[in-house]
Amino acid sequence: MQFWNRRQFLKLSASSAGAILLGQYGAEAFPSRQISSPVSLKPKDGLVEVELHARYEKINLAGGQAYVFSYNGQIPGPTLEARPGDTFRIRLTNNLPQPTNLHYHGLHVPPTGNADNIFLSIPSGESFTYEFTIPKNHPGGIFYYHPHRHGLVAEQVFGGLGGPFLIRGELDEIPEIKAAQEQLLFLKDFALDASGRIAAPWHMAQMLGREGPLVTANGQVNPTLSIARGGLLRLRLLNASSSRFYRLSLPEHPLYLIATDGIPLSEPIELRELLLTPGERAEVLVRGEREPGQYPLLSLPYNRGSMGMMGRGMMGQGMMGQSDWDATRTLATLTYSGQVSPLPLPKKLIPVEALPESKTIRRFDLNHSMAPGMGMVFLINGKIFDHQRIDTQVRLNTVEDWEITNTGVMDHPFHLHTNPFQIISRNGQPEAFRAWKDTVLVRVGETVRIRVRFQDFPGKTVYHCHILDHEDLGMMGTLEVEPRT
Ligand code: C2O
Ligand code: CU
Ligand code: CU
After folding, report:
1. Predicted structure pTM score
2. Of ligand 1's atoms, which has the minimum distance to the CA of residue 146?
């Protein structure tokens, strides 16, 4: 066992140009190992009971040891599996030196009480038990738990906290999908200092959204994903990074998208690449239809914008902002092994209903500015988040269109809690296919129209930028869903 040190980071960060070639990280430092999967907890008699201990401690990470934040000493945290109708009882013990809490990203459960209530704060040294039931008609897919204590979200998520939910549903019953080999990929970057501790960010990195050069899939650097010739691999992708975007591509292998943000599509969509911004999930099928060999799962360059002069040149040696946006990285390696008689792709998945048109259009402007004594702040409709204020009030069981415009200089992935939505258009261009989402990228200069139905759960919830530094620096608003009278 070894600590991550600066030399290894340099090795990692020097890997940009030749990244398409395998083994560029140096085989000694990163032997490509079979991917491991997080411990999975399954329901007993309809109940999933879990103890999560949030801790800052030394754990094994990416072939070395590091002091990071984790749940139960694991990166990612345990996978919590259930079926619609099952109940989760999650006892969170906060052994961090600061307050924390939990959010159940993408799950359609109450945002109040001891359910998905992000307004709770669990002090250091205390425990809290969350409990909620997955509605019987909840879609099956991949969801995400992570801390959501305003002001500390980026620090805690970047530090390592987070884990997947798998809700088993109709999609899992489709024969072609059942036949596929399933693999979760929890994508997470880290920045560690010379002693193997989470590197402290500096101001600039926070404004850009902190990123780190150690990029892991299920806590491993470039693990091996096996596929049989003729086989089908179901990749269940989750971007658990606080700021990093992943522009995914697998040479010679189209990605067949079957679900977005945990909810199935009506039919597979063939893609050459897939952009996954923080908080987003996607499921793709990969066919083992090429010459047996090794193929890198790449993250291609993507420039998510800069603060003008605070670009690459000023990022310096800290490597905490998006200093390597023009690098191509290998996240994992697809390796052929064995052969099966060719498995077909499914033709149809789960129908996606069309939401009725809405007469209400609300507008949200994403931007930033300088605030006296605070430095750069991030704003929605000119305001910094204030948990005392209700920014938006809607009525239960109504449908609204929200038009989100980015007038700033960096991309902002916009996320809404509690209810999923559909993307209607981008800059007036209708969206190519109908899908459910809970996070949508709004690029610099773009206007995205989404349609959302507020269903089942009255109460206070939030929407925010999922570059979690931006959220902590103010880019969040409170939504109140009022019961119908
Ligand atoms: Cu995954 Cu409010 O966030
Ligand atoms: Cu969320
Ligand atoms: Cu943002």
Report:
1. 0.92
2. 1
